[in-house]
Amino acid sequence: MPETAPPLQSTMDFSSFKDAERKGWNARAGLYESHTALATLQIAPAMLDALRLRPGMRLLDVACGTGNVAAATSALGCRACGIDFAPAMIAQAKARFPGTGFYEGDAEALPFEDASFEAVSNNMGLFHVTDTARAMSEACRVLVPGGRFSFSQWAAPRESDLYRILFSIIAKTADMSRADPAPDAYALSDPEAAQGLMFNAGFEAIEFRRLNTVLLANGRDFFDFFLSFGVRVPLIVQAQDPDVQDQLQQEINAAMQPYRTTQGYEADAKPAIHRTKTMLMLRRALDGLYLAAGVLAALCLIAILGLIVVQMLARWTGEVFPGAPDFAGYAMAAASFLAFANALNRGSHIRVSILLNAVPDRFRRVLEIWCFGIGTAVMWYFCYYAYRFVYWSWKFNDVSQGQDRTPLWIPQSAMLFGAVVLAIALTDHLIHVIFRGDHRITRDLEDQSHAE
After folding, report:
1. How far apart, in whole angstroms, are the C-alpha atoms of residue 421 and residue 169?
2. Phi, psi (5° rounding) for residue 351?
3. How many CA atoms lie within 13 A of 352 on its CB side?
4. What local confidence, expressed as pLDDT, does residue 447 receive?
5. Going by C-beta distance under 8 Å and a sequence separation of 6 or more, which residues neighbour residue 426?
6. Residue 423 CB neighbour total at 10 angstroms
7. Domain closes at, from 278, 294, 329
8. pLDDT at residue number 220
9. Number of C-beta neighbours around residue 33 at 10 A
10. How many C-beta atoms surround the C-beta of residue 438 within 10 A?
11. Is residue 164 domain-shared with residue 58, that is, in the same domain?
């Protein structure tokens, strides 16, 4: 929620912060509707409008809290479900909306298959993750091509008088070093920075919209309300000495007096909505290319079976089928090369990952880049000489030495095509690792455990 911590590098260990966030939201689950939801519910209509919902759409609400957004989309006829890392929040959501599915899970490691949803929403949830880029990549992964992602983010203190007042007092009075290291709360408040992260995650057609909402605080003590509103500020406050906590309470309550109403406090919050959709044309074209090559490989295997059957029939009837073994050999070579890219993407190749699994994530990414970089360079080098090989076979009209007398450039072309598709796939994965931190190889760890 609208609280801050000093910006730190993403390479730092934020595990303590993540554990504290989970515990904090567990403790506040019973207060969510009377505190946090007073602000976040104002954002939900614009967020759902950005997703262009229609009946029957599959939607995932990440960081669902007590289930308001997922339940609202269910009421609109969507097949919605919600996920949150705080078990108490999920318990509240299930109790309030028993007709909607809610699950405990992490926004940075969504427990869903690729392309499972047409829409993903995240109402102020990215404000609390430790790795924003990974959370965005996960949202993109579970979306179908052309699916839409919408998330909200609080405005930075420089854009909001309310937050500027609050955090200037906290920064001046509190000892920020006492709190656990935390990621920059307002990394996504800058539209350009947010758009860069979204593009790297695999999104396009990115739009930004500023909303006019108000922070509603019930009661006479704004400081007490704010400690129940979110988790980030309490983590800072609780790390201070009692006298510093008292000083913070006095100064914040005094600064908020201009925002007093008969029922409590009311101040502009100014959140932002970002909406986008997954890359469509290029991603579909590449995935279609890999699939087409795999289908051609399967057809080559079927052709081999057909050749074997025809040979058997010819032998039984006393007929002669010249060149059948040669044609079967061509089909086998074509099937091997054409299947490489599709097999790579589906994790069917044996990848010796003992070293990769043993090193920290930051070193693993370097090793992945090195591996894919070497593989990509070698494969394009092979493609160059394979092209020259095919070209000169065509130029000199080389033919098979068997009975079929087939021009060799024809079966060699299938090898070249498969090699080029594999080189493209390796390049695709290399770019993915560089800009998004992970490759696109789908892995079934149980099936591969004996091979790796």
Report:
1. 58
2. -110, 115
3. 2
4. 40
5. 344, 372, 375, 376, 379
6. 23
7. 278
8. 87
9. 15
10. 16
11. yes
Contact 339, 293 (CB under 8 A): yes
d(CA 230, CA 358): 37
Are residues 145 and 280 in contact, defined by beta-carbon separation less than 8 angstroms? yes
Q: Which residues pair with 272 in a beta bridge?
A: 153, 210
- Domain match, 355 and 385 both: yes
DSSP secondary structure of 109-149: B-SS-TT-EEEEEEES-GGG-S-HHHHHHHHHHHEEEEEEE
Percent of the chain surpassing pLDDT 90: 40
Q: Of 153, 140, 148, 146, give the one whose Cα is nearest residue 51.
A: 148
Same domain, 295 and 265: no
Amino acid identity, position 37: A
The CA–CA distances, whole Å, from 176 to 131, 199, 201, 232, 297 equal 21, 33, 31, 12, 60
Domain boundary among 278, 300, 335: 278
pLDDT one-digit tens code per residue, 307-332: 888 888 888 888 877 777 778 888 88
Check if the beta carbon of residue 62 is closer than 8 Å to that of residue 86.
no
- The number of C-alpha atoms within 13 Å of 130 and in the hemisphere containing its C-beta is 19
Check whether residue 58 and residue 114 sit in a common domain: yes
Same domain, residue pair 267 and 346: no
- Residue 312: how many other CB atoms lie within 10 Å: 11
Distance CA 127, CA 133 (A): 12
**241 pLDDT exceeds 70?**
yes
Say yes or no: 345 and 389 in one domain: yes
End-to-end CA distance of the chain: 43
- φ and ψ at residue 99, rounded to 5 degrees: -85, -5
Count CB atoms within 10 A of the CB of residue 249. Answer: 17
Which token pair is 321? 């089928």
Alpha carbons 189 and 148: distance in angstroms, whole number: 20
Reported in sequence order, the residue ranges of 298-448 that DSSP labels E, i.e. its strands, are none
CA distances from 315 to 20, 179, 307, 310, 318 (A): 76, 82, 12, 9, 5
The pTM score is 0.62
Please give the full DSSP string across 64-109, using - where no structure is assigned: -TTSHHHHHHHHTT-EEEEEES-HHHHHHHHHH-TTSEEEE-BTTB
Element (H, E) at 274: strand 272-278
